[in-house]
Amino acid sequence: MRKSIASRQLPIALSALICWSFALTFPLAEVQKLGLVNQSHLLSIGSAFRDRDQELLGLCVDLLAIVFPSLIFLILPVAACTPGTLFRTQSLKLLAVSKAWAMPDVFCLSTLIAFIKLGDLATASISAGFYFLLASTFLLTYLTQKLSIPELPHRKSRAASVAYMAAAIALLIPANLLPIMVISTAQGTKSSNILSGVSELANHGLWGIAAIVFAASILVPFGKIGGLGWLSLNSPKTEIGPLHHKLHRTIDFIGRWSMLDIFLIGVLASLIEFGTLASISPGPAAPAFAAAVILTVVAVERFPFPKPS
Fold first, then answer.
1. Is 0.85 surpassed by the pTM of this model?
2. Crossing angle, helix 2-25 and helix 128-146, to 10 degrees?
């Protein structure tokens, strides 16, 4: 029975690897403005931050959107083999580490939102790389649900979790007050913070996109901190009830989606790069927001959550 399951999973894992290779090779999208053409590749998103003197932010994006997902797609064919296969146990452990930080699904959604948001700045079209990214993301989601991936062996500490959470709160203040994106055109320069960006989407009639960005950039970070704070104060140290368990699983799942705004800026910056005609750059709030998101993810991982009763 296990061999038959593995025989089905291995071709899917190889297909996911091939799709991911094509996603890295082909452009994700293409924009045209006044006869000028620019393309965005998955490998160019981090460079878009580095070209604008945001080296750490570029490194963070490369790790979350390229390095860790690439490790997963390379490991999946081995992890999909039958039990007892050489290196399978080690590959599952490495897969667990990579899965915790790989965010191709978040990046996929941010690319789609960037494409929709480009309406006023340039003529945009989705390219083949995006479809391969979408296919590899769906295949990855399916396989990670079928494989028995072990939990990461973190040192659990309630005090450490609270410390990470406090640092995230401190960073979320400038992240929400300062400009997160700067748009420069021939008519002038316009800066927007997270809330004004959501308001602009709503004013253009993009209520669905505005709701997604608002949820990912505002509701999720603050909701995650509030939920983790409530668990820190009310969660018992031995056994927990179903409410605590569901809340913890929800917080753990939604936290990664807050990176959507950072990926969105990266995609827009790599596409809209027409010199004095039009360009997009990350604002001073972008590094603070990315750091806050990462700290909240670590805070959840370090929280000593007991097993459900």
1. yes
2. 150
